[in-house]
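User: As part of a screening pipeline, I want to sanity-check one entry by hand. Below is the sequence and the SMILES for thiamine diphosphate. Please return the complex as C-alpha cells so I can compare it with the automated output.
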Amino acid sequence: MKNNKNISGAEAVIKSLIKENVDLVFGYPGGAIMPVYDEFFKFQDKVHHVLTRHEQGAVHAAQGYARSSGRVGVAITTSGPGATNLVTGIADAQIDSTPIVCITGQVSAHLLGSDAFQETDIIGISMPVTKWSYQITKASEVPVAIAKAFYIAKSGRPGPVLIDITKNAQFEMFDFNYKKCIGIRSYSPIPKIDKNKILDAAKLINAAKKPLIVWGQGVIIANAEKEFKSFVEKSGIPAAWTILGASALPTSHELNVGMVGMHGNYGPNILTNQCDLLIAIGMRFDDRVTGDTNSYAKQAKIIHLEIDPVEIDKNIKVDVPVLGDCKESLAMLSKNIKTKSYKNWLKIFDDLMKKEFNKVIKNDLSPKKKGLTMGESIIAINKLTKGKAIIVSDVGQHQMVACRYANFIESRSNITSGGLGTMGFALPAAIGAKMGAPKREVVAVIGDGGYQMTIQELGTIFQHKLPVKIVILNNDFLGMVRQWQEMFFDKRYASTEMVNPDFVSIAKAYFLDSEKVENRSDLEPAVKRMVESKKPYVLEICVEKEDNVFPMIPSGASVSDIRLE
Amino acid sequence: MEKKTLFTVSIYTENNVGLLNRISAIFLKRHINIESFTTSECEIENVFRFIILVEMTHSGINKVVKQIEKQVDVIKAFYHTDEETIFQETALYKVKSNSLFEEREIQKFIKKSNARIITVNPEFFVIEKTGFRNETDKLYNDLAPYGLLQFTRSGRIAVTKSKMGISEILNTFKNQKKK
Ligand SMILES: Cc1ncc(C[n+]2csc(CCOP(=O)(O)OP(=O)(O)O)c2C)c(N)n1
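Assistant: Here is the complex for your manual check:
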C-alpha cells in the first residue's frame, strides 16, 4: 500500500483491517470513534460498514458472520454506552468460542480516569469475558495491537478480543507499517499432540464393546468435518452431538444418533450411562449436557479430544486426554483403529428412538390437536429449504425444537447461542450469518419473547436489503420459562405471558414482506412463499400456547433420568 | 470434602497493563479469597512474577492455575506447597519511642526474635522482622500489649526448590520463530 507515511491512527485502523482481509464490519458511530468512521467513509469501496440499530445487534451480527463463514467478525462502536452495549455479545462469543474483534472508541488519553463524557472502563468491564484486550493510547500501537487481536481471536480456541482506542491515538499521525502476527511468546494456542495418548485412545476404542462418541463445536471450529466423518465411519461408533456441534455430520447419517443434553434425544442420553467408552470430541461437558456430573458416564472409560487444556478434567474426569487440534488428532486416531461395526449396540439406539418417536416426536410432527406445533413448523422449513438452510435460532423452546428437528446436510448450518443462552441473539446473528454465507438461505427461528429484544434490527435488514428469512414461533408466552413454571412451580405463571403487538404490521412498517399463519393447511404454502422470495420475509406462525418440549432432563438430574413426558 | 491446603502460586508474565485484573478476576469468579499477592520483575528482563498465596483444594488449584496459564500474556504458571518452596514475609512494627526506653521487655523481644530496628526518631521507632508467618505473628503478639502505632505485613515472597525453566520456554519460542 502506498501513502503509508504520516497517516492518522484512524486511517491505520482501516488499513490494518484491510491487511487482515476484513471487507465487512458491523457497528454504530459516536463521538469517541468519529475519526475512524471518517476513514470508513473514505475507504467504503474496500470495507463495507453495516449500521445496525443497536450495538448489541452489531456484536451478534459479527458473531453470526464468524459462525457461518469461519472468519473473524468485527464490531465497532463508540465509547461509554456504545461499548457497554457490546458486553452481552462479547460474553456470548467467549463462552461459545467465537472469533470476533471488537473495536471501541475511548476518550483521549489525558482524560482517562477523569470521568469524562462517555468515559467508561470498558477494558475493565470486559476483561473477564474477553480472550484478550488492549487499550491503544498512541497511534504507533494501532498496527501491532490489531495484528495481535486478529491472531489471538482466531488461533487455538477462538474467542472475542477487544481493542479500545483513545481519541488522541486516532488523530495522531505516524508512519504506518503492518506486520501480521504469527506468534506470541507467552501464548501457545495449539498443544502438541502426544502420540502415546493417541495409541492409548486407539487401544480403548479397539477394545470397546459399547462405545459412544459425543462431539461438539470443536469439530466445526477445527474444520475437521472430513476427518471426523472418516473416524466415525471407520470406527463404526454411534455419534451424538451437543447443540453447538449440530450439522458437523449430516443429520441423516446412519451413525448420527441425535442430540445429547437437557432436551436432547432419549437414546444418547440414556446410553451415556450404559456405554463402556465415551469419546468426547471438541466439547466441554457443559452442565446442560451432563446433568448431574456425579452420575454421568461413571461406568465408562472416557477419551477427550480437546484443544484447550483447561477443559481437561474441568467438569468430568477423563481417562485419556488427547490435547491438540482435533483435525490432526482425529486423522491420527483413524489410522490406529480397526474398522468395526456395532449392530446390536446401534439397535438399542434405534429402539429408544422408536420409544421417543411414539411418546414425543409423533405428536410434535403430526399433531392430532388443532393448534400448530413448533415441530411441524421446523419440518416445513426443512422440507421447503431441502435441508440446505442455515438455521439461526434464538433461545427458548423454539431453539430446542429447531435443533431437535432441523435436518442438516452441510456443516455450519446451526447457529445459536449455546453457552450463554442470549435471547435476542438470532435476529442480528442471522444478518451476520447471511453476510458471511451470502449464497446460502438463512432462516432465523425466533420466539415472540426474544424477537422483541432486538426487533429493531429489522431496520438494518431493510436498509441493507438483506434477504434474511425470519420465522416467529409465537406462543404468546416466554415459553421455556412457562414450561418450567408448569413443571416445577405448580403452574404459577409469574410474568411469562406476553401481550404481543401485531408482528406483521411491524414488519410491514419496516417495508418488509410479512404474513401470519394460524392454520395447518396454510403452513406449507406460507413457508414456500417465504423460501421462494428473493427478499427479506417475516413469517409469524401462531403455535399452541402451552406446549412443552420433551424429552427433558430436569436440572440437576442424571442423564439417565431423562423424561419423555 | 477434599482437604484445603495453602498453595504458593507463581505466575510469570509479560508486563501488560490489566493482567493483574485478569488474574484476580479468575479468583473472583470462583469466589476464592486471596491470602496475599505480590508482584515484581523477576530474573529475566521484562518478565514479571506474581506470587499469590491461596488456600484451596488440590483439584481446585489445578483448575485455577490452568485458567491463569491460559491467559495470553501469561508465560507460565505453577503452584507449590510449602514443602516445595522457600518463602518469607516481612513485617514492620511502628512503636512509640518512649516505650523502647521505659519497657525493657521490648528490647528483649527484639533481640530474641532477630528483628532489626530500622528507624529511630524522638516520637517512634520502626522494627522490621523477616521470617515465617508464625514468627512475625509472635513478635506482633509480644509487642501489641505495649501499643503498636502501626503494623503491616508484606505478601509472601518465595522461590521454589525445583527449576522453573522460563528462559527455556522463551528460547524455544525464539528458535521456532527463526525456523
Ligand atoms: C437475555 C435473556 N433474558 C432472559 C432469559 C431467560 N429465558 C430463557 S428462555 C426464555 C423464554 C423465551 O421466550 P420466547 O422468546 O418467547 O421463546 P419460547 O421459549 O416461547 O420459544 C427466557 C425468558 C434469557 N435466556 N436471556
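Points to compare against the pipeline: The pocket of thiamine diphosphate is lined by residues A 394-398, 421-424, 447-450, 473, 475, 477-481 (CB under 6 Å). Chain A touches chain B through 20 residues (CB under 8 Å).
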